[in-house]
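Model it.
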Amino acid sequence: MTDASATAARRPGEQALAALGLDAPALDPADASPHSFPGGGRWRTEIPSCEGPEALAVVLKEAARLDVPIHRISQGSGVWMLTDGEITEMVEATAACDIELCLFTGPRGTWDIGGSVRTDSHGAGLRARGHDAVAGCVEDAVRATELGVRCLLVADEGVLWTLHRAREAGVLPAGTTLKVSALIGPVNPASYAVYERLGADSVNVPSDLTLDHLTEIRRTSGAPMDMYIEAPDDLGGYVRMYEVAELIRRGAPLYLKFGLARAPGIYPYGHQLRDVALATARERVRRGRLALDLLARHGADRDMAPLGSRMPGTLRRFDTRP
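Modeled.
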């Protein structure tokens, strides 16, 4: 049962506009998501694009300084861009703060010799081309989980299904969670439900989906949703800060991702990008503080999931038996 406070109308400027006779139409309670995270709460936080131990240290320091609660920290360059020592350092640092660490798996279209992704149609997208690319993703997944990583980011439906089957078969630890990248995020309820059934434990939807789109998805699936409150430029550069309370109301259970528009790309990360990676890591945390302050001003900050929670609850899956 959803708490009434989680679905109450909370909108920017509401009282001031009402005093001027410019009231907004009443919100429909039927638009509210009936879902929440297991253990309570309707939203969690995520700091993306944390590309190594040094950037992670910046994020943790800034989060402590600004009092920004973090449930998940994710990386975008990929497992293959980190040494075993760097992965271990990141695992230990996040574990000490009870934060989930999510690393991206393997080869994907833009870092491949295939040319179709560079055509005007962007054919094949960011997916894994051929058996060897899938094998590289599996190699990354096995290596990362052996080093203690418990969340993997994927950008290919076949890789998702393969890693889910590996999890079911015990090749990957049972508690491993699989996160669908915004690079292949679904844009309708039917495709969202398919990702859930393929093994996704959270699904990153594009930040240009409307509020009605979120409600449509929530009538089909309760799988956790990830959304950039501020999207990087290569994902549209959308800034939806003032919608954050309504995004939670419609999209819960929802990870609020604090990305950064108008910032240089840093994938795949290397030391040549160090200064910009550290500066943008710090600013992503600050963006999180701004969003949390806005939620507090609107009385919408009460429904955060407990810190340290990471599992998605019971989800629907396709049968993995042969």
